[in-house]
Amino acid sequence: MQASHQHRFLFVGDAVLQTEPELSEELKALLFSADIRSCNVEAPLQGFGSPIAKTGPLVAQNRLAADWLIASGFNLFPMANNHIYDYGIEGLLHTMEAFPHDVTLGVGTEEDAYDILVQTFDDVKYGFLAYGENGYGALNGDREAGHAWVNSPRVQEDIQRYKKMVDVLIVQVHAGVELLDVPIPEWRARYRRLVDLGADAIICHHPHVMQGIEEYKGKLICYSLGNFYFDYPSNHPQWNLGAVLTLDFQNKERVAYDFQVVKKTGTRVELEDESVSATWLKNLNEKLNSASYIEYVNEAAVRDWEQHHAAYYAKPFNGLAKYSLKNMLKHAKRVLFNKNIDYNMIWHNMFIESNKWLVERAIRYKFKQEQK
């Protein structure tokens, strides 16, 4: 009779390190209980390349960040995200070179970025892929190197082909609306489609806050792990909270999973009590499965439109989305000194999926309200 082996894989969310992490003993024990220990590397290492033209912040991390993550015990590094290309090809390639070549995912040339990483444990083949939503570093036809794009036309065929090569296929995706604690329906539909194509688990990050978990056709979809260690200023109350997700497999099937909340205080990261983690997941899942879920998303879309996106649509043409003395003075300055159309901002509005889908929801919602 053949022995039954159990394999554990562990995943954390976004990491940008300016300081060296100090993991609690309990967290270390959990980390080293897993065969694969994955951490999303959110930004290139400082000192390499030049800043690209884009909207939003340019982010880089300490040159020693790769050494610190490896020393902490992580051994898998998805990099398909919206900041990894902030300092161009040179910044990306130097960052990749700082890690062992066989433990990075979702970045490089098209051949490398869309390639699968296969790890075999006790004759069971596990495949790992990483994708990000569209962005200034996405491999969408605009550049020769960057990150794998989750909505690329090639993804459907790739996943179907890769699933035939492995027993279990795990896909990580960096996408979603930032600081929203539920996924929008458009991303839920996309992740379910990836499961239909052959993915056995979908694990996501990017919103900087945690989101819930659901099972679809017996496969796990974890919508956001939040931040793990993000040294970037923010006043958001959840900025220094995230989740550690563990998946346990036996006989090529997932037999258990666990969602544990971690908290960063200064440089120290430690696990929250099990009861705290259970409460977080319960509350997140209740929002995800609530009868008012769609209304909650639509209201968030309208709020985001009024706070940010209306101005994003006005700004490229030096327009004015909101009338206030401060905005009118800024508008006058732009009219006098900025005569060019901001095509970067237009690209940001039209092609990054989360932005586009959220604005579409806001406009439909506001239009419907005006018709009443």
TrEMBL record:
Q: Which residues form the Capsule synthesis protein CapA domain?
A: 8-232
Q: Which Pfam families match?
A: PGA_cap
Q: Any coiled-coil ranges, and where?
A: none
Membrane-crossing residue ranges in chain numbering: none
- Superkingdom: Bacteria
The UniProt similarity line reads: Belongs to the CapA family.
Name the UniProt record assigns to this protein: CapA family protein
Which species does this protein come from?
A: Sphingobacterium hotanense
Output the lineage of the source organism. Bacteria, Pseudomonadati, Bacteroidota, Sphingobacteriia, Sphingobacteriales
